């Protein structure tokens, strides 16, 4: 199980690094916009992301 967790974490780092590598200016603008969002909206986005990820894992497994 720990090996799969490590692999998933490495994939996360690779995927998170694609946008700043390919288009840093656009990525910086997106991060600046995220910084201006309210805590409530960020939490809702995080919840939606977690639920979508969980649903996709369930469907793929």
From TrEMBL:
The chain crosses the membrane at residues 6-23, 44-60. The keyword Glycosyltransferase does not apply. Keywords: Membrane, Transmembrane, Transmembrane helix. It comes from the Bacteria. Pfam families: DUF2065. PANTHER family: INNER MEMBRANE PROTEIN (PTHR38602:SF1), INNER MEMBRANE PROTEIN-RELATED (PTHR38602). This is DUF2065 family protein.
